[in-house]
Amino acid sequence: MENEEWLTVLQLPSYAPELNPQEGVWSLVKRGLADFAAANLDHLSRVMKRKLKKIQYRPERIDGCLTETGLIMNAG
User: Fold this and answer.
1) Residue 36 DSSP one-character state
2) Pick from 31, 67, 22: which is nearest to 51 by CA?
3) Considering the domain boundaries, does residue 70 fall inside one?
4) Nearest Cα to 28, choosing from 1, 71, 63?
5) Which of 47, 52, 54, 57 is closest to 22 using CA atoms?
6) Nearest 10 degrees: CA dihedral of 40, 42, 43, 45?
7) Is 3 a domain residue?
8) Which residues form the Tc1-like transposase DDE domain (predicted)?
């Protein structure tokens, strides 16, 4: 390889959404949008911010998204 002395190539694992707690948060948001039709981008933005804020004030829901992955956060 031409640039071997300074270039390191790493094989990364494929994307695993089941290990990403953010996917759980988006799932919660999307559930409330089943029959929603935004009038425009500003309307969609306001509704999304409102739904995310509701989740923000329910930390047990966010914790549930983390728990669903099987990952553990260490306090430290």
Assistant:
1) -
2) 31
3) yes
4) 63
5) 52
6) 120
7) no
8) 4-36
Rounded to an integer, what distance in angstroms lies between the CA atom of residue 16 and that of residue 75? 24
* Beta strands, E only, 6-75: none
pLDDT digits (tens, 9 = 90+) for 13-66: 788 888 888 899 999 899 878 889 999 999 999 999 999 999 999 989 988 888
The reply to whether 11 falls in a domain is no
Query: Residue 43 domain-assigned?
Result: yes
Residues 54-68 have pLDDT tens digits of 999 998 998 888 888
Q: What's the burial of 24, exposed, middle or buried (CB within 10 Å: 0-12/13-18/19+)?
A: buried
With tokens 């300074």, the residue in question is 6
